[in-house]
Amino acid sequence: MKTISIGAAALLLLAACQGPEAQAGAEKDKAAAKAAGVAYNGNGPNEAVGAAKDRANEAAREAREAEAAGLQRQGDAIRRQADVEAEKLEQKADAIRKVADTQADAFDAQAAAKRK
């Protein structure tokens, strides 16, 4: 009795895990079995085709997700590289400003001396 209960629970769990294509295929199989006057045994050709479509759709979704993640990583890498380059340019700008300030201070000192 417990074996049957466990088996029934597993069957319900499996049915709950079916994708939309497999579920639609199962409904077609049930309708075909009913029309033919035979009992539906829980797995038919349309359900199997639907399950295969569900697996293909899931694989395609996972591939799209992996591709999107890769593109995201590429974008992040470009941003990090831009930050590094910007930091280098900021340091170079600071150095240029320091040299310019030193030169301007020398001219300011010469101008002050001329005014005396």
Number of helices: 3
Helix content: over 70%
Tell me the radius of gyration: 36 Å
H and E order:
HHH
Number of domains: 1
Q: Tell me what portion of residues adopts beta-strand conformation.
A: under 5%
Shape: rod-shaped
- Report the average pLDDT across residues: 89
Helix vs. strand class: mainly alpha
Give the biggest beta sheet.
Answer: none
Low-pLDDT residue spans: none
Question: How would you describe this structure to a colleague?
Answer:
The relative contact order is 0.07. The protein is built from 3 helices and no strands. The chain has one domain (2-84). Helix 2 (20-36) packs antiparallel against helix 3 (45-115). It is mainly α and 116 residues long.
Give a brief description.
By secondary structure, the chain is mainly α. Helices cover 89% and strands 0% of the residues. It has one domain (2-84).
Give descriptors for this structure.
single chain; 116 residues; mainly alpha; 3 helices
Topology of helices and strands:
Layout: H1 2-16, H2 20-36, H3 45-115
